[in-house]
Amino acid sequence: MAAWPQGWLIASFALHLMGAIACAIAAGWLIHRVEKPARAEHADVQVRPDRTATIGALCLTALWSAIVAALGPYAYAATLAEAGRNLAWIFVLYRLFANDGRHRSLTPIRPVVVVLAFVEILQIALLLAKMKLAQSASDATLTYEISMLFYIMVSVGALVLLHNLYGGASDVARKVLQWSAIALGAMWAYDLNYFTIGYLSGHLPFEMAALRGLVTALVAILVAFGTASMSAQLRLRPSREVAFRTLSLILIGGYLLVMVMIAQSLAMLGGNFARLTQVGFLFFASVAALLWLPSQRMRRWLRVMTVKHLFQHRYDYRAEWLRFTRTIGQGADSSSSLPERVVKAMADITDSPSGLLLLPDENGAYQLASRWRWPDIDVPAIAMPVQLAELFENDSFILDLDDVRLGSDRYGEAELLPNWLRDADKAWALVPLIHFDRLTGVIILSRPAAPRRLDWEDFDLLRVVGQQLASYLAEQSGHQALMEAARFEDFNRRIAFVMHDIKNLASQMALLARNAERHADNPAFRADMLVTLTNSADKLNGLLARLGRYGTHGSDKREAVDLGEIAALVVKRYASIHPVSVVRKDSGKVLADPEALEQALVHLVHNAVEASDAGLPVYLDISTDGVNGRIDVIDSGCGMSPEFVRNGLFKPFVSSKPAGFGIGAFESREMIRAMGGRLEVETRETLGTRFTVQLPLFAAAEFLSRGPDDYKAEVA
Predict the structure, then answer these.
(1) Quick one: what percent of the chain has pLDDT higher than 90?
(2) Coil, helix or strand at residue 662
(3) How far is CA 515 from CA 528, 540, 638, in A?
(4) Which of 177, 297, 355, 641 has a C-alpha 20 to 30 A away from that of 488?
């Protein structure tokens, strides 16, 4: 035999010593497990018929491994101990058939077992002959080759028996046999390769001889688990992440192996052309790998295939819930708002690259509240009708848009689905957010990079996550309402002090005016002072009245107001500040408070002017439809985001201006509502904003307010 390198000698000693220790510990653990069924608490546990044989085989394997560690793998004692080890494991294999009673019915088993045992005994006889007889070089070679053939025959026969054992077992028996079958199969498959290489090369490879100790340790661990009474419940269940990464490494390794094989095949052509072809192939293959392997689409496809074929369930619920909690719980440290995190948390579950969140306005219609990585989709002001929202609320179903496009209509949702969603190919699913049987919002998910159909597991998980997200949104809405009430209380308290001070000042100035009128000697001075003080008192009283009306439902004053005249007053006020013009002026009078309407329009025009660049005009468009009068305030300014429109535009004390007080738009809406009208807004960032004021026409309001007696009086 060739001399061993010093490093492999040390490795062989350490690994075989480790194998001996592992076998001894496994045998002791199984002996301890054998005693347990005799106790009352373990009376229902049945001892496996191969347990005693396995303990004996582990003890003999520990002895063999210890001898190899001490004397080396080629010592006579090691060879003799290996024969005893093999006989013990052949007997264990025979006893494994007794787990389902096949050792009594399968008559071909016993002759095969006897033959394998006989061959192993011949191995012992061959060893004794080698020890007693002086051999020449040719005799030694012949003896070595016969010994290798004996080892190969035993390994092949044992693997055949093992295949029949596991292949013919029932499903229940396989659960019991699987770990022991894996252990014995690994041991004999390694021996088959080890001795085959030794036979073909004329000497046993010292590297594989050293690694037999490591194989022995692994076999001992697997056999111990397989012989345990609870082995049927043991499962190898790698996580989805481990399976995905393992499959990725296998694909990468396979790709590199194929690339190297093709490159080596090209090199066989010979010459400079072959070398050039080889380098060119490696270059293009490497570039393709760099573009293909990091691809997000490729990774998602691979993840879908892994989950589809390797796991019973699509989702790793523990990992999904941990990721969901991290996304939602980012809090103030995150640059994204809660609505954006809500969309992201839902989209991450289905690997959707983008999504939208629709929330109800005060009229019940659903508007865009947030978009996550979906800037190119055009969402109308009324994104979803109230009727579809009621359908979601009543039936609590998740809408697969592909099914609707194919003609499905289970709940009557097909005719209610907006055209912009039906026509958006990227739109994939609508997930309702239900909180206490009330719809709080709807999430629209885009199609994943690896296309697939939604199934029952998707529906169950998305429904549960939707309920959780709905609770978060409802909690945030309640918190905002409490904060708004607290701010109102503080604001009203401050205004009360301001009103008190202004009232005192107005009284003092009025008294001063009366005293000056009574005591001033100079008539001209007296008249001038009287006019000045009277005007100041009027202004302060007007401010006091205005502050007193703030926060209430406004004045009860109603009269016929010409929208064109009000618009002309607003245009005149801004004539020297910013270009404001009327582009259309339909005739018609509305029922309104002229002062409040002018004030509301001034607020809206002022906001439009501040949002527009210098020189960009603000337009007023006046129209009627027979029932309502309408005036639009249109600008081409910076526009507003859907998040600000929903969460900040009509919220008092929330302003996008550094020095703004945040009550202009809110006060305009409240005054228009108090007059029986509506204020609506449409806006797009960088494109501009349109505020629409709608008020009932005076003639229509007067007509609707008349009773039957009024009509009888007119006829008479």
Answers:
(1) 28
(2) coil
(3) 14, 19, 54
(4) 641
The residues pairing with 628 across neighbouring beta strands, listed in sequence order, are 696
Closest CA to 50 of 64, 30, 28, 36: 30
Domain 559-704: what homologous superfamily? Histidine kinase-like ATPase, C-terminal domain (3.30.565.10)
Q: What CATH code is assigned to 317-478?
A: 3.30.450.40
Would the pLDDT of 392 be above 90?
yes
What is the C-alpha separation between 380 and 420, in angstroms, rounded?
Answer: 8
pLDDT of residue 463: 93
Q: What is the pLDDT of residues 98-130, one digit of tens each?
A: 766 665 555 667 788 888 889 888 888 888 877
Least confident of 224-228, 271-275, 640-644: 271-275
Give yes or no for a contact between 666 and 651, defined as CB atoms under 8 angstroms apart.
yes
Pairing state between β 628-635 and 589-592: unpaired
Question: Cα 482 from chain centroid?
Answer: 31
Q: What order do you get walking across the sheet with 366-372 strand by strand?
A: 366-372, 355-360, 438-446, 427-435, 399-400
The C-alpha angle with vertex 449 and arms to 443 and 451, in degrees rounded to 5, equals: 85
The C-alpha atoms of residue 490 and residue 297 are separated, in whole angstroms, by 54
Instruction: Give the burial string for 129-151 (b: 16+ CB within 10 Å, else e).
Output: ebeeeeeeeeeeeebbeebbebb
Instruction: Give me the helices (H) in 311-452, please.
Output: 317-328, 338-350, 386-395, 401-405, 419-423
Q: Which amino acid is at 101?
A: G
570, 597, 614 from 577: Cα distances, Å:
12, 21, 10
Cα 435 from Cα 511, distance rounded (Å): 61
Handedness of CA 249, 253, 259, 262 (dihedral sign): negative
- Taking CA atoms, 178 is separated from 54, 170, 223, 224, 341, in Å, by 15, 12, 10, 12, 46
Calculate the alpha carbon distances from 680 to 95, 172, 380 in Å. 84, 69, 13
DSSP bridge pairs for 518: none
DSSP, residue by residue, 234-299 = ------HHHHHHHHHHHHHHHHHHHHHHHHHHHHTT-HHHHHHHHHHHHHHHHHHHHHHTT-HHHH
First to last CA, the chain: 134
d(CA 454, CA 462): 10
**Number of Cβ within a 10 Å radius of residue 557:** 11
What are the tens digits of pLDDT across the range 79-96? 899 999 999 999 988 888
Burial label for 505, CB within 10 Å (0-12, 13-18, 19+), is middle
pLDDT computed for residue 157 by the predictor:
87
What is the architecture of the domain spanning 6-233?
A: Up-down Bundle (1.20)
Ramachandran assignment for 80, one of left (phi > 0), alpha (psi -120 to 50 degrees), beta (any other): alpha
> Taking each helix axis from N to C terminus, what angle separates 206-227 and 51-71, rounded to the nearest 10 degrees?
160
Whether 317-478 and 6-233 are alike in CATH topology: the answer is no
C-alpha dihedral sign at 665, 666, 668, 672: positive
CB 449 within 8 A of CB 301: yes
pLDDT of residue 324: 92
Residue 670 has pLDDT above 70, yes or no: yes
Best CA proximity match to 374, nearest among 357, 358, 359, 356: 356
pLDDT surpassing 60 at residue 508: no
Rounded to two decimals, the pTM is 0.49
* Cα atoms in the Cβ-side hemisphere of radius 13 Å centred on 420: 12
What residue ranges do the domains of the chain occupy? 6-233, 252-304, 317-478, 559-704
pLDDT greater than 50 at residue 385:
yes
Contacts of 508 (CB under 8 A, 6+ apart): none
- The closest alpha carbon to 593, from 554, 631, 558, 546, belongs to 558
